[in-house]
From TrEMBL:
Pfam families: AAA_3, AAA_lid_2
Name of this chain's protein: MoxR family ATPase
Source species taxonomy: Bacteria, Pseudomonadati, Pseudomonadota, Gammaproteobacteria, Oceanospirillales
InterPro entries from the UniProt entry: ATPase_AAA-3 (IPR011703), CbbQ/NirQ/NorQ/GpvN (IPR050764), ChlI/MoxR_AAA_lid (IPR041628), P-loop_NTPase (IPR027417)
Ranges for domain ChlI/MoxR AAA lid: 270-333
Domain ATPase AAA-3: 37-167
SUPFAM superfamilies (alphabetical): P-loop containing nucleoside triphosphate hydrolases (SSF52540)
Organism: Allohahella marinimesophila
Length: 342
């Protein structure tokens, strides 16, 4: 097999794992081939983490995620010398930077010294601690992410540091068709995880097992085992959802992003809408609500029942909405009224 064919196979695999982001898939492979790093900017929930993890599955190298926070220190990235009392000497403890694929999540949340430590490693392909220099892996790709929505508590990257990145990729929301494919993909993954979860739960026992006990409500036993929960979760995933109801969920999420298609007043009340995580959440919660009600199918009423609680913390009202006293629930109620119910 030629090298080109090999990379084409990888590209096809990544497109099955990262739905609706073909440009991100292509640019990851471009960065890998061009031996550079990339800065990815996009709202939360757009598969940025999933993308680099999927790429790591195709590379014989290790993957590490670094969550950047304001209290992070340079040594938390590069590693540091650790004193060993038994040998009366210092040993170098490598940090998370010593991996082939690095996800620097929300890089602009860390202060300048931490950003510089990462960017120096990117440019020099080495880390210096004390008077020693340690080389980084030959295959070394950093994908740093930035959230364009939240600016409070962030430290913007200076232009000179931005220039260290080979690519600056903007990731946008997927279209309607892609979002429905995302639903199917996540449901299939959830089923696979549930099929393996009971076995792993029985093997790992971090704490001593609690003594057996039975809690009853009258004559009905109400004690749930892990197996009971996993079985119920699988049943929830198997609750039937008509394609029209699935379309309805996607249209609700799309309406939070582009409300002007339905109501120009709502458009003036919303700055940012919900991510594909919200689509997945409504799907799972509506199925659970239908199952709990004893139904074997999901109705639009099940979707509307969970929509407020799923979306309330995922939309960002505009200044005009706040000035007019429009709460998030009021905005969502208006939005649900204007999206056609199947």
């Amino acid at each position: 097999m030629s090298s080109l064919q090999h990379f084409q196979n990888v590209s096809e695999y990544l497109r099955t794992q990262i739905i609706g982001q073909p440009a991100l898939v292509e640019q990851m492979l471009v960065a890998l081939l061009a031996d550079g790093h990339m800065l990815v900017e996009g709202a939360p929930g757009l598969a940025k983490t999933r993308a680099i993890k999927a790429l790591s599955n195709c590379i014989s190298g290790s993957f590490q995620r670094i969550q950047f926070t304001p209290d992070l220190l340079p040594a938390d990235i590069t590693g540091s010398d650790i004193f060993r009392p038994e040998t009366q000497s210092f040993d170098f403890q490598p940090g998370p930077i010593f991996h082939s694929l690095i996800l620097a999540d929300e890089i602009n949340r860390a202060p300048a010294k931490v950003q510089s430590a990462l960017l120096e490693a990117m440019a020099e392909r080495q880390v210096t601690v004390g008077n020693k220099t340690y080389p980084l892996p030959g295959v070394f790709l950093v994908m740093a992410t930035q959230n364009p929505i939240e600016q409070e508590g962030t430290y913007p990257l200076p232009e000179a540091q931005l220039d260290r990145f080979l690519l600056h990729v903007i990731v946008d929301y997927p279209n309607v068709e892609s979002e429905q494919q995302i639903l199917q993909l996540t449901r299939d993954e959830a089923r696979r995880q549930l099929q393996t979860a009971p076995a792993s739960a029985s093997v790992l026992q971090p704490e001593p097992a609690a003594p057996e006990r039975t809690v009853a409500n009258g004559d009905a036993e109400v004690q749930l085992s892990h197996e009971d929960i996993f079985t119920a979760r699988m049943a929830v995933l198997d609750v039937f959802m008509n394609e029209n109801v699935e379309h309805y969920i996607v249209r609700i999420i799309q309406a939070t992003r582009d409300p002007g298609l339905y109501d120009k007043t709502i458009a003036s009340w919303l700055d940012y809408g919900a991510s594909p995580r919200a689509t997945i959440a409504i799907d799972r919660c509506a199925r659970a609500a239908a199952w709990l009600a004893g139904n074997d199918y999901v109705s639009p009423d099940d979707v509307r029942k969970v929509a407020h609680d799923v979306l309330r913390h995922r939309i960002i009202p505009s200044f005009r909405a706040e000035a007019e006293g429009m709460s998030r629930d009021a905005i969502l109620a208006r939005l649900l009224d204007v999206v056609p119910v199947p």
